[in-house]
Design brief:
The complex is a heterodimer.
Chain A: E1 4-7, E2 10-13, E3 19-25, E4 32-38, E5 44-51, E6 57-58, E7 67-73, E8 76-81, E9 90-97, E10 106-107, E11 111-115
Parallel strand pairs in A: 2-11
Antiparallel strand pairs in A: 1-3, 3-8, 4-5, 4-9, 5-6, 7-8, 9-10, 9-11
Chain B: E1 4-7, E2 10-14, E3 19-25, E4 32-38, E5 45-51, E6 56-59, E7 62-67, E8 72-77, E9 86-92, E10 102-103, E11 107-112
Parallel strand pairs in B: 2-11
Antiparallel strand pairs in B: 1-3, 3-8, 4-5, 4-9, 6-7, 7-8, 9-10, 9-11
The chains are: A mainly beta, B mainly beta.
Chain lengths: 116, 113
């Protein structure tokens, strides 16, 4: 199997606070995880690539100091949205690959973030 | 970098008809092309993928074709059913390493009973 979980599924926070989202591969080790953002009725926009034991690679236009990514183990990556603002409200989805020789990406169920 | 265009943006068919969704890509180095199905509020699910050493792949009612020369690939769904209604995304990447998927804009498929 290839099951990816995310926690929390929904979160509401106030402007200026930080929120941490966890992405876990439950039945495989993921050397690489990806974080996406999806606005309503739009496609998935890659935010960053997270590699176990090294710094994340951010896509152009994504603030690395605002979206902190940590991939401390082969089964866990976290995304922390710091000093959240209403425009950060979105659906955040992670995905995981089983290894550098495996192309398939398996997605988590997503986290709906609402910043008030 | 890679750019993936997807058409149509919406597609409406009658149950039992076929549906075809087309994508084009820009980077000739891309060699892995997956298709994902996403139902409202849920995660994208990989439904089929193809690599550039293959021209066609089929899995029951779903098939994908790839034309490397023209740099386009298509998803074909036959005998559509209402449960096929969802948003479908194509994507492209370079196989191996940490290469990322670049997604198309998506196609909203509606299958009417």
């Amino acid at each position: 199997g290839a099951v990816v979980s995310q926690h929390p599924s929904r979160v509401i926070c106030k402007s200026g606070t930080s929120v941490k989202i966890e992405c876990r591969s439950l039945d495989f080790q993921a050397t690489t995880m990806f974080w996406y953002r999806q606005f309503p009725k739009q496609s998935l926009m890659l935010m960053a690539t997270s590699n176990e034991g090294s710094k994340a690679t951010y896509e152009q236009g994504v603030e690395k100091d605002k979206f902190l990514i940590n991939h401390a183990s082969l089964t866990l990556s976290t995304l922390t949205v710091t000093s959240a603002h209403p425009e950060d409200s979105s659906f955040y989805i992670c995905s995981a690959r089983k290894g550098p020789q495996r192309d398939e990406q398996y997605f988590g169920p997503g986290t709906r973030l609402t910043v008030t | 970098g890679e750019n993936v265009e997807q058409h149509p943006s919406t597609l409406s068919v009658q149950e039992g008809d076929s549906a075809v969704i087309k994508c084009t890509y820009s980077d000739s180095a891309s060699n892995y092309f997956p298709w994902y199905k996403q139902e409202l509020g849920k995660r994208p699910q990989l439904i089929i993928d193809i690599r550039s050493n293959v021209g066609e792949k089929k899995d029951q009612r779903i098939a994908v074709t790839l034309n490397k020369t023209a740099k386009h690939f298509s998803l074909h769904i036959t005998e559509t059913q209402p449960e096929d209604s969802a948003v479908y995304f194509c994507a492209a990447s370079q196989s191996g390493g940490y290469n990322k998927l670049i997604f198309g804009a998506g196609t909203r498929l509606a299958v009417h009973p």
